[in-house]
Amino acid sequence: MEFLRIPSISTLPEHRRDVEAAARFLARKLEELGFPLVEVITTAGHPLVYADSGPRSADGTAATAAPTVLIYGHYDVQPVDPLDRWDSPPFEPVIRDGKVFGRGASDDKGQVWMHLAALEALREAAGSWPLRVKFILEGEEETSSTHLHEFLRRPEAREMLAADVVVISDTPMYAPGFPSICTGLRGIAACQIDVYGPDHDLHSGVYGGAVANPATVLARLIASFHDEAGRIAIPGFYDAVEPLTPAEREAWASLPFDETSLCREIGVSALAGEEGYTPLERMWGRPTLEVNGIWGGFQGEGTKTIIPASAHAKITCRLVPHQDPGAVLDSIEAAVRQRLPAGVSYRFTRMEGGRAWVTSPGNPFLQAAAAAMAEEFAFGRRPVFVRMGGSIPVVPALAERLEAPVVLLGFALPGEKFHAPNEHFHLENLRAGMRTLVDYWLRLGAWPAPLAGG
Amino acid sequence: MEFLRIPSISTLPEHRRDVEAAARFLARKLEELGFPLVEVITTAGHPLVYADSGPRSADGTAATAAPTVLIYGHYDVQPVDPLDRWDSPPFEPVIRDGKVFGRGASDDKGQVWMHLAALEALREAAGSWPLRVKFILEGEEETSSTHLHEFLRRPEAREMLAADVVVISDTPMYAPGFPSICTGLRGIAACQIDVYGPDHDLHSGVYGGAVANPATVLARLIASFHDEAGRIAIPGFYDAVEPLTPAEREAWASLPFDETSLCREIGVSALAGEEGYTPLERMWGRPTLEVNGIWGGFQGEGTKTIIPASAHAKITCRLVPHQDPGAVLDSIEAAVRQRLPAGVSYRFTRMEGGRAWVTSPGNPFLQAAAAAMAEEFAFGRRPVFVRMGGSIPVVPALAERLEAPVVLLGFALPGEKFHAPNEHFHLENLRAGMRTLVDYWLRLGAWPAPLAGG
């Protein structure tokens, strides 16, 4: 509750001190937990919190034979607007109906807290931890993890963060009653397209018909990016994309998927997308090109009879394995350049990019996590291996930098309103998740020796 | 100068009293000019100023045999932003280089003033006016002339405004050195299209690929409104459109038209538009569909990975003779309805509409105006009959209500920055225009009897 009360909104400059307070809160807790090395690493942005239980466990027991785990999480949260849609104030957490409500309850303070609490419980019950534990906690996940990425490029980062496995609890389970482990995330490639026509807004009566309208040109460009079948119609876009394997398609097809309830949840009358693929395949396994925003000209009440001087669109693509963000942006820019009519010019701005990430469900670290989850979530079924449509660029970054497998062992639930008013976390999952973590550490600690990354 | 100093910006509520002050200023001037009947007509918006010299001229001379002229003009002006682009304050008029600079100098206070000054000069020189003169001056031309239109529908309006010809000086000449009379205006049909998808912005990673994106849908709709040849691809849109006559095309082709200098003036590298037509034909004689504004989703700095809940466009069409604004909007809405994919809904909002207006250059009132202009503008050439791409809905409204020909006898010049910073009016045209008006009234006054509208 104390952690949730800190309004650590990383995107708003006025909350800078709150974000720092959340970092100091975590550092203090880690010290209280017995971590001999706790460091608040300052960056040009928000700080990183680093901790290492050391080659020996907190009480001096040798633990070098067991693997080392690095736990990643974030202590920053999303903004809270629209504030009037919250049933209780976002930074005054309350428990109602078996759920804790408050900004960050599930994303990600609640799940970071589970890790601290699980380690505390384990130490109290067993006297020590059965493996070496490191933490890297950041305060910029809701912006773009800029300074964690920068830190990862530092020479000392590799040694500081070195681990046999990275465990992250920042993802939702597939559905209530379906404990799951995420084995893939899509990548991302973002850009902005600006179309420029006349050097000032023109009277649409006087000049209309004789001048290329930047808003129309932009609309025609965007329309040209997909064909009638919902496929992306940009030469080269799919070059690196491998078809989904029959095994993957079969596994996903066996998952329960209720199209009607998804439609109800997001408020649409029907799903849409690329022909020949199921909704799960479209969301998890196929690349996309989405307009995140578009604007140009007059947006006020009534009518303003202008040909706007410019029009703009923000676009993000979601990428699948093997697609290179730079190459994808190259293909889009080439299409813009080739398709632009006379009388207008364009600017193409490249923004963030990150590759997709996939891991094999066969990796023993994932198998052990699944076994722990199966034990502690009393649903009578094994966890399912799923993918997610979103991107967590820090996942491939950690995996590559540390050459270690990443286990996305998340305990949130879809519908817990991450990023939205009335964010909450189910207490039953908080408890079962903590038990799962304890179980997981005991399993890994019982292994004879560090494993090579799988 | 006193008239120009009144900041009568009709669109800004804080200038309401200034607009009223401009109306009172005109009423006082009309009384000083000797009009026996001057009335400030209050409306739910800004007032109308009405004057009538009566069936006899101001000095009692019978003038009933000559035609009656109704002069229309407006005393409201456009807003002045961006203020920092003005070389001198917009409401502190100054004379530089033979031009008077100030908001309203050409649009339309300067041209209204010419009418008052011409009548004053004529009375001083000749002792009386050779014809009956009426004025109807409004303060809402820069918004939408709402209350003038409302007034025109009143039963008494027809008798009050009854005239043999309506003369309006609110248009530019074709080019410097080319006195011209405008014989046609395009009509207008305005609408807004809203496309609604999910009931809130969705995470474009989690859901991207499986949901129709309203911004993309809107872009595809807009793209579908034109074909590759720049023709409007909406069934029924051109149904009422008659081809341009060979005579019109020939007359317009004979006008000097410098494509390079137009491109430079508006800041584009090339003109564009419907294949098979010249730029003048596209601007004057062909209907258009222009996006005046488009918006949806994220417009800030950086990236926000959403599928926007909705996307919006404001559209105005310019219409040519015989096109009905309602039918044109019907055709657009039908296209939207038919082309909308599953998973989104739309709202189609009809806004202002007005028919095109054309008059025959052969009408004797136009011929007389041309003769007066030829006499007083020492360019050695006859005025040219041109059209304009814009719409002045009050022109067809007056023509229909009064069943009288309208003569658009404007003395402004393109490049005089109407609606923009540094609006100005050339004093040489002010003087030649005043002489033209005096000449015109003398010609009409010499006619034996009122003419039927031509």
How does this structure look, described?
2 copies of one chain form a homodimer. By secondary structure, chain A is of the alpha+beta class. Chain A folds into 2 domains: 13-185 and 356-445, Aminopeptidase; 187-238 and 287-353, 2-Layer Sandwich (Alpha-Beta Plaits). In chain A, 30% of the residues lie in helices and 21% in strands. In chain A, strands 1-2-6-3-7-17 form a 6-stranded mixed sheet, sandwiched between helices. The first copy, chain A, has a 4-stranded antiparallel sheet with strand order 11-13-9-14, covered by helices on one side. In chain A, strands 4-5-18 form a 3-stranded antiparallel sheet. In chain A, strand 1 (37-41) and strand 2 (48-52) form a beta hairpin. In chain A, helix 2 packs across helix 12 and helix 10 (364-376) crosses helix 12. The longest helix of chain A has 19 residues, at 427-445. Chain A starts with 15 loop residues before the first helix and ends in a 9-residue tail after the last helix. Residues 449-454 of chain A have low confidence and may be disordered. Chains A and B meet through strand 10, helix 5, helix 8, strand 11 and strand 12 of A and strand 10, helix 5, helix 8, strand 11 and strand 12 of B.
Provide keyphrases for this structure.
homodimer; 454 residues; alpha+beta; Alpha-Beta Plaits; 4-stranded antiparallel β-sheet; Aminopeptidase; 6-stranded mixed β-sheet
Number of domains of chain A: 2
Mean pLDDT of chain A: 93
What characteristic shape of chain A results from the CA principal axes? globular
Trace the largest sheet of chain A across and list its strands: 1-2-6-3-7-17
Give the N-terminus to C-terminus distance of chain A in angstroms.
37 Å
CATH structural fold name of the largest domain in chain A: Aminopeptidase
Q: What structural class do the secondary elements of chain A suggest? A: alpha+beta
Count of DSSP H/I helices of chain A? 12
* CATH class categorisation of the largest domain in chain A: Alpha Beta
Low-confidence stretches of chain A: 449-454
Q: SSE order of chain A in H/E notation?
A: HEEEEEHEHHEEEEHHHHEEEHEEHEHEEH
Helix content of chain A: 25-40%
Identify the most extensive interface between protein chains.
A-B, 82 and 81 residues
- Tally of extended strands of chain A? 18
Query: Please, what is the CATH homologous superfamily of the largest domain in chain A?
Result: Zn peptidases
State the oligomer: homodimer
β-strand amount of chain A: 15-25%
CATH architecture of the largest domain in chain A: 3-Layer(aba) Sandwich
| Major sheet description of chain A | 6 strands, mixed
